[in-house]
């Protein structure tokens, strides 16, 4: 006697998927062209065809805990070849966006960062907080003498708020990623896992750093450069901030402003340049039609990268040129972008660095990522 399974679609999930960029999924008629075209999918139970039917059926838990979704690098080779215009590459992108919302800690933050309707609240909170802090510990009036941003808002107030935000973001991201891992084990760990997470993490890291999987793209090869610029731009900016705070400020007692010839300062400027060039490539590709679908998550990240890079750069040039009338407003904007970056990192597209790494580690343990070229580097 045959066994019957009752499929109970999560209708709200289907609606959320459409909002997150997966509105074309209904067009799929399961021809499997996409799975044949994809250079990154394994032979056994290949993606993205199976994910398309799960998405249509509203199989939320199975889909959001699917490590295969994180093996996809959204080259959209499959979308170009899909005879129905179902855009499977974008649907998998939407599933990844949904992960930040679904596994978020606390959950309401995932909802806030997923919808433009919450944008006034999301921006209003840091705006009000910074305004109050400046009223308490700073000054909107530029004093005579050398232009210093520490006169605008004290270093202690800035560090108090941003170091706190940093640790809260790390905790929130760790909880979210842990929920994701448990979900993968529950729904996709039935065939067993090879080895422990740490050795597998070490084995996937070189590939992530080299962005090797992006090079497998056929239609959309330039995404490699855009993503590489943003990835190393953020890495360089984080390194710069860490060295200035921990080594210079606390270790050596050397306070800002630092000369342009300072090697760490140079690293910061090069990182900002990499961020901006990366964001320009990504933006150009979105407007040129190579990356046809862009979600609210995509645009939020692009605006954040431009905002951080431009206001950060402008801060130092405004100081050097002694442009006093715009110095503090620009610095306020910069602080606002930095707040957004830290506070909302676990729920925005920035979080995909952590989710993708964890998804790829699981895929390695489940032997899902061993395609034709073993461990594409
Ligand atoms: S997404 Fe397109 S190519 Fe893939 S199975 Fe569906 S119809 Fe076919
Ligand atoms: S977007 Fe690219 S990597 Fe992702 S499923 Fe399609 S072909 Fe594969």
Question: What would you note in describing this structure?
Answer:
The protein is an all-alpha fold and 377 residues long. The chain folds into 2 domains: 92 residues, Alpha-helical ferredoxin (Fumarate Reductase Iron-sulfur Protein, Chain B, domain 2, Orthogonal Bundle), CATH 1.10.1060.10; 259 residues, no CATH class. The chain starts with 10 loop residues before the first helix and ends in a 12-residue tail after the last helix. Bound molecules: iron/sulfur cluster (SF4) (2 copies). The site of one iron/sulfur cluster has 13 residues, from helix 2 and helix 3.
Quick structural overview:
By secondary structure, the protein is mainly alpha-helical.
Helix and strand topology:
Elements: H1 11-22, H2 33-37, H3 49-56, H4 60-64, H5 77-81, H6 88-102, H7 107-112, H8 119-137, H9 155-188, H10 197-210, H11 223-252, H12 263-288, H13 296-321, H14 324-344, H15 352-365
Keywords: 4Fe-4S, Iron, Iron-sulfur, Membrane, Metal-binding, Oxidoreductase, Transmembrane, Transmembrane helix
GO molecular function: 4 iron, 4 sulfur cluster binding; metal ion binding; oxidoreductase activity
Protein name: 4Fe-4S ferredoxin-type domain-containing protein
Summarize this structure as a short list of keywords or feature phrases.
disordered C terminus, binds iron/sulfur cluster, 4Fe4S_Fe-S-bd, 4Fe-4S, 4Fe-4S ferredoxin-type domain-containing protein, 2 domains, iron, mainly alpha, 0% strand, 377 residues, Fumarate Reductase Iron-sulfur Protein, Chain B, domain 2
